[in-house]
Amino acid sequence: MRRRAFTLIELLVVIAIIALLISILLPSLAKARDVSKSVVCGTQLKQLYMAAVLYSYDYKSELPGPREWVDNSIAWFDSWKTPAAVTKGTLYKYTGQKDALYLCPKFIDVCPKGVTPAFSYAMNIYFILPGQVGAKGWAGYPSLRRTTDVKHPASLMLFAEQNPWVTSYNGNAMDDGLFAATLDPKVPGPPFSDALATYHNGADLDTGKGDAAFVDGHVATHSILETYDIATPIQYR
Questions:
Q1: For the segment 94-125, what is each residue's pLDDT rounded down to a tens digit?
Q2: Nearest Cα residue to 196 out of 169, 228, 237
Q3: What is the pTM of this model?
Q4: CA nearest neighbour of 81 among 195, 204, 13, 171
Q5: Torsion 168-171-174-176 (CA) sign
Q6: How far, in Å, CA of 139 to CA of 24, rounded?
Q7: Is the pLDDT of residue 68 over 90?
Q8: What SS3 class is residue 29?
């Protein structure tokens, strides 16, 4: 009995159908990967928050500093712009010495080529000790050293994703680990000195989202236009 083989036309039709299916599925797969990376990012921020809480138990309820302290001790990380920053920081032992915890997997995809980042998160500057940036603290306001100093803990972020477009401007994907949203987006002027990451759930600066861990412990995703609102204490606006 003679076996019937596929004709060239039939093979081309099958190949075309496969190519069509791939073109339909690939965007969905890419979106699924991005969503999973965003979930990982949120989980890591939650763990950083928990590490800060554990730290506070050992230091009279005070939170770690977002930058080197005035008494020359170290902050939640140390030696900014160096790979050793996270391992020398005060939170490292409270995170279980997990280097990967400091780096969002999506950040690796968007940071400048040839740069190996050590961290992609930053701590809110309003928790800095007085003396580093002024007699009182950041922008002349009293520093928030304990979570109980925050009047609206669900409205103020403690840690957030640092945006690579800010750091890559200086030719280095690693920033200073300090988050200082100094400009209200409603007021005309230059871009934020710091801003939320915009590579989650969007393709650019305007549509993207960033994850932040708040003082009350919850983690939420916000747009870049909400940076000022969630990074500045309500009583200091």
A1: 998 888 888 888 887 777 677 777 788 889 98
A2: 228
A3: 0.80
A4: 171
A5: negative
A6: 51
A7: no
A8: helix
